[in-house]
Amino acid sequence: SILGKPIIGAIPLLSVASPEFQDTVNKTVTAANIVYHEFIKSEEGHGFAGQVVMLGDSMGSLLAYEALCRSNGSDGGGSRSSRTDDDERFNDSDLDAKRLLVAPSPRRRRSSSSDSRGNKLDFEVGDFFMFGSPLSIVLASRKLHDAKAALPRPNCNQVYNLFHPTDPIASRLEPLLSARFSMLAPVNVPRYAKYPLGNGQPYHLLEVIQSHPQHFSEANNILGNRRLSDASMQSTISGLIENVSLSTIHSLQMKWWGTKRLDYALYCPEGLSNFPAHALPHLFHASYWESADVIAFVLRQIGKFDGIPFVGSADDKDTVTFHPSQPREKWMKKRTSVKLKNVAANHRANDVIVLEGREQRLNARFMYGPLDMITLHGEKVDIHLMKDPPAGEWTFLATELTDKNGRISYTIPEQVSLGYGIYPVKMIVRGDHTSVDCYVAIVPPMTECVVFSIDGSFTASMSVTGRDPKVRAGAVDVCRHWQELGYLLIYITGRPDMQQQRVVSWLSQHNFPHGLISFADGLLTDPLGHKTTYLNNLVQNHGISIVAAYGSSKDITVYANVGLRSEQIFIVGKVSKKLQSNATVLSDGYAAHLAGLQVVGGSRPAKGNARMVIPRGCFNLPGQASNPRRRSIPYEQIADE
């Protein structure tokens, strides 16, 4: 497909082969360093500790790629340049590479000496966005000239290759890294007019393998590796990989340029197909910088969530964004920086519910990579808490070291213990500024709550992980009804906590009311037993009063063991005749149930003082405000009503 494009697609090859190309790269690097240092010296850039993002279109992307490869300290075939497991397929091509494309000597001179002597960037790059880039054509030409040469990997966290399918200059990058991706279409960038916050389609490698296991199941034969002994673990992970070994996942991850898909196709009007090929590059060049689809996509990828993950009433306008008080530090262990190259953080922490006067303990786990391949061991984590949300200041509590399992456990000292309320907590990894958010709820006795099983009561399809499942009609409205009456919402699931970010994102996208969430600690053989133990602990040790509970037929036993009566247990979906008398079956769905709750006598407002501190809002998405309501005063100072 690359060779079949119009002759205009060969122009980048001539540019890269020019002796002046490396001089242009040097000038580009010098200019970028000047801009960076001027910003650091400016008032706006003082104390800057964020990530640097590079964007390049057409030839600019080639210059940026060369600069990033230099930052590797690689000469084009160094340690970060890895041969793919599909090289043999490439070598067996029927094409006579040397007759089709003979590379001039300047290109060879570039890979052998220019990189080592050329200018290098003075800063680290997080994400690298390429617009209409001919990089894949250039790399393919080098591969044709020298089939044994490895593809240099740019020194950045993630590469995004955005292009119009009809652009004669641009082409796909993924099949060069893994031939299997030639069988997969590029990701379609959603139209901003229809999906301003994205359409929830999977971008991560793990999700791609999950969605298309047939394209990756033969990897063991290609690699010649035996299947790892973790097959039993694979079978217990709900909705994850089937028939694909962990060695295949690890091999693909090691050679990939990030943790997500690389190729992203933009919407292209049908009328452009009638334009002459030589006119298209000029049109597309302008469109990349003017397209709302591109702008929204870039912002979604680089935007880091810093706020409080729920939103309240519109009359509270001010919220405080968290900014780390100090720049990133060197890792405590030298090996940590090597292990964490090109892996995404998957930190998590369950929300904490504590009766006032009891020990206030925070727990979190810090992991990286799919399936928790890498544990953060022996590194510093800073713990911050906001005592007066949503517009209060973040208070530094302590710095803890992760143990060999990546866990930290911190008990808030009695002298600074919290009065009842719901408080945001943010834990920051000192080495890379990745973070995890959670909440600690200090509640008075007999706090009334409503419990929802996420999978049993909300989802209308198999799995929250991976694809976006349908929401049961009326589920969000029922949750909002109970929240408006002043009840504390508790969301429970037996899923492993490695899926926490995905599930919370799904709740956010569908505007579920904010509640406190509990996941299982790792993979469990008895998820229903975990739910029972968790709820019994809240009832017996923290004074929680469960007024109603929702779930599937599997949850009936859980709720009954907690002491709920049949009229307090609401079940959606099919229920066996033997269990129908133990619960209230919502055979007509949530709409009819909500109508019954809204009539006089159908439901009542929550009792007691807890309703004064329970937030009324939703899980939020990046950029939304937040408004948890709280009262940070001791329970004894509130008169009984």
TrEMBL record:
<dbReference type="GO" id="GO:0012505">
    <property type="term" value="C:endomembrane system"/>
</dbReference>
<dbReference type="InterPro" id="IPR031315">
    <property type="entry name" value="LNS2/PITP"/>
</dbReference>
<dbReference type="GO" id="GO:0046872">
    <property type="term" value="F:metal ion binding"/>
</dbReference>
<dbReference type="GO" id="GO:0008525">
    <property type="term" value="F:phosphatidylcholine transporter activity"/>
</dbReference>
<keyword id="KW-0597">Phosphoprotein</keyword>
<dbReference type="GO" id="GO:0035091">
    <property type="term" value="F:phosphatidylinositol binding"/>
</dbReference>
<comment type="similarity">
    <text>Belongs to the PtdIns transfer protein family. PI transfer class IIA subfamily.</text>
</comment>
<keyword id="KW-0106">Calcium</keyword>
<feature type="domain" description="DDHD">
    <location>
        <begin position="121"/>
        <end position="304"/>
    </location>
</feature>
<dbReference type="InterPro" id="IPR004177">
    <property type="entry name" value="DDHD_dom"/>
</dbReference>
<dbReference type="Pfam" id="PF24694">
    <property type="entry name" value="LNS2_PITM1-3"/>
</dbReference>
<dbReference type="InterPro" id="IPR001666">
    <property type="entry name" value="PI_transfer"/>
</dbReference>
<dbReference type="GO" id="GO:0031210">
    <property type="term" value="F:phosphatidylcholine binding"/>
</dbReference>
<protein>
    <submittedName>
        <fullName>Protein retinal degeneration B</fullName>
    </submittedName>
</protein>
<dbReference type="InterPro" id="IPR036412">
    <property type="entry name" value="HAD-like_sf"/>
</dbReference>
<feature type="compositionally biased region" description="Basic and acidic residues">
    <location>
        <begin position="82"/>
        <end position="91"/>
    </location>
</feature>
<feature type="region of interest" description="Disordered">
    <location>
        <begin position="72"/>
        <end position="91"/>
    </location>
</feature>
<dbReference type="GO" id="GO:0005737">
    <property type="term" value="C:cytoplasm"/>
</dbReference>
<dbReference type="Pfam" id="PF24695">
    <property type="entry name" value="PITM1-3"/>
</dbReference>
<dbReference type="Pfam" id="PF02862">
    <property type="entry name" value="DDHD"/>
</dbReference>
<dbReference type="InterPro" id="IPR023214">
    <property type="entry name" value="HAD_sf"/>
</dbReference>
<dbReference type="GO" id="GO:0008526">
    <property type="term" value="F:phosphatidylinositol transfer activity"/>
</dbReference>
